[in-house]
Amino acid sequence: MRRKLLLIGAGLPVLVLLVLAGMIVSIRSGLQRFSDDAVARFPGDRTAALMRLVDCDSCSLEDRNHAVWALGQMVEVRAISVLRKHYDGQPCTHTTRLCQYELRKAIRMIETRHQREGPIWRLVAKWHQPWH
What we know:
single chain; mainly alpha; elongated
């Protein structure tokens, strides 16, 4: 019985770390993919390309929503005006306009960036932003 508790006690932190690492890798690969696609369409730095993609009326809503998500995950202060321009707080209609929920999340991530200070946040931020 004691041995089982010891294994569970040792295994749980390892499991938590593996899940966190998987999440970070997933976020990082998504950011890389979406920003690479944006830069291929709109030359320039990643932030500028993603911002132009959000504003692109001839681009698919799916691609534009991915750009909104990426800007929020990158916590890009330069993008706040573009994100606010498209956010009206109305219910989402994913077939006709950008997802208001994703816009709200991205804006909130950027506006609350100073509340996530500290060594753990800096470590996570470095892991999921491969170009910094």
